[in-house]
From TrEMBL:
In the reaction, the free carboxyl group of octanoic acid is attached via an amide linkage to the epsilon-amino group of a specific lysine residue of lipoyl domains of lipoate-dependent enzymes. Catalyzes the transfer of endogenously produced octanoic acid from octanoyl-acyl-carrier-protein onto the lipoyl domains of lipoate-dependent enzymes. Lipoyl-ACP can also act as a substrate although octanoyl-ACP is likely to be the physiological substrate. Gene3D superfamilies: Bira Bifunctional Protein, Domain 2. Pathway: Protein modification; protein lipoylation via endogenous pathway; protein N(6)-(lipoyl)lysine from octanoyl-[acyl-carrier-protein]: step 1/2. SUPFAM superfamilies: Class II aaRS and biotin synthetases (SSF55681). This is Octanoyltransferase. It is an enzyme of class 2 (transferase). Its EC number is 2.3.1.181. The keyword Oxidoreductase does not apply. GO terms for molecular function: lipoyl(octanoyl) transferase activity. Belongs to the LipB family. It is found in: Cytoplasm.
Length: 266
């Protein structure tokens, strides 16, 4: 595979407005589809913004009317902002594109990035992204004096963590010793070329996530490299490490089209 080019759109204090980056993604996407450029990964930090993928439910959005940018990627609602490394790999892949394989490659690069800083992360079946696993259920502290058997998040369809105080806040999942997401992934593929990508929490203010139901997940939370490691890590620290692993994984991938049922022998 050809070399992956990295383009830095802007980092703190030169944060990038989301719509500006989205416009640039579309421009690069068109150029990549026309083979005017090679595979390109845009790296940046955004100004604070909530973005909602196509599957976002109204019950997952901010209650206070905070604006949300609806986007054409997969997944649900999330937050982007300072202290979070965002990457948009715009790559031409064999058609029909194996979207799951592309997501797995991004996860692998970010898992390796976290490992270089001394943090063990993993995948969680059925939930995209990169995760820090919580303690076994029986070893977790009780929430509000409730055992897991009585946890309303699991048994009450109308329970809303946005209204129920800090003990249920996504940003406090580490204190509850629950599974918590370090990096989110949401992509779109158009004409065989990928768009959107990943966000890796380095040292953001994770209380921004408390206004929403991040990724539509009510029984887990969010975390950051700095929180998990107990020391300050900056986006500037992470960029070269992430670039190294994205390059290793994406450039050396064995790219194959998605298997189509019934196509064998055709």
């Amino acid at each position: 595979m050809a070399e992956l080019e990295f383009v830095h759109l802007g980092f703190g204090p030169d944060y990038v407005e989301y719509t500006e980056a989205w416009d640039e993604q579309r421009r690069v996407h068109a150029a990549r589809f026309a083979d005017e450029i090679g595979d390109t990964c845009l790296l940046l930090e955004h100004r604070p913004v909530y973005t909602a993928g196509r599957r976002t439910a109204d019950s997952e959005r901010p209650l206070d009317g905070t604006p949300v940018v609806d986007v054409d990627r997969g997944g649900k609602i999330t937050w982007h902002g300072p202290g979070q490394l965002v990457g948009y790999p715009i790559m031409k892949l064999p058609r029909p594109v194996d979207v799951v394989a592309h997501v797995r490659r991004l996860e692998e690069a970010l898992i390796r990035t976290a490992a270089d800083f001394g943090l063990e992360t993993t995948r969680v079946e059925g939930r995209s992204g990169v995760w820090v696993l919580g303690d076994p259920v029986e070893e977790r502290p009780l929430i509000g004096g409730l055992s897991l058997d009585l946890d309303p998040r699991l048994h009450d369809d109308e329970f809303d963590p946005r209204l129920n105080g800090p003990e249920y806040a996504p940003s406090n999942a580490g204190q509850r010793r629950e599974d918590r997401k370090l990096a989110a992934i949401g992509i779109r593929v158009a004409k065989g070329v990928t768009m959107h990508g990943f966000s890796l929490n380095v040292n953001p203010d994770n209380t921004w996530f408390d206004r929403i139901v991040p990724c539509g997940i009510r029984d887990a939370g969010v975390t950051s490299l700095s929180y998990e490691l107990g020391r300050e890590v900056t986006v500037a620290d992470v960029v070269p490490v992430a670039e190294k692993h994205l390059r290793d994984v994406l450039e050396n991938a064995d790219l194959r089209p998605r298997a189509v049922e019934g196509a064998a022998g055709v």
